[in-house]
């Protein structure tokens, strides 16, 4: 990486990064990125080709979670983050969701987006103009023009 003309170089550039987070509840969360840039003076991180994996926990009622994005940025304290360039989420329960961008607010433990979102899973498909998902309570709010398509489950014999 070359220093852009007239700009100070970033403090740290990491390539092919794997991050392991050992949570207080004992679970291991992992994140990978092709590149992470630390802008120390601005108190910010940037990453590319991001993938975050979280194992199933009692609080995550949909099983494991995988979150992927082409680009992301965050403050160094982890209070807020932005994911862009095609954000996808998958769960162990078979849910799959896509949007162009999303933001994370650690104070409210909410991931939200104002770009169109579509998702599908066992027995449903949904499209909306935006969303907010609160991790505590696993509450999903769909915004704007919302279309929900359900498929009846087969009767047990």
At the first level of CATH, the class is: Mainly Beta
Order of helices and strands: EEEEEEEEEEEE
Largest pleated sheet? 12 strands, antiparallel
Q: How many β-strand stretches?
A: 12
Unreliable runs, pLDDT <50, ≥5 residues?
none
Secondary-structure-based class equals mainly beta
- The CATH H-level superfamily is Lipopolysaccharide (LPS) transport protein A like domain
Number of domain units: 1
Radius of gyration computed on alpha carbons: 18 Å
**Which geometry do the CA atoms define?**
globular
The number of helical runs is 0
- Percentage of helical residues? under 10%
CATH-scheme architecture = Sandwich
Quote the average pLDDT. 88
As for the CATH topology, it is lipopolysaccharide transport protein A fold
N- to C-terminal separation?
A: 62 Å
Q: Into which percentage range does the β-strand content fall?
A: over 45%
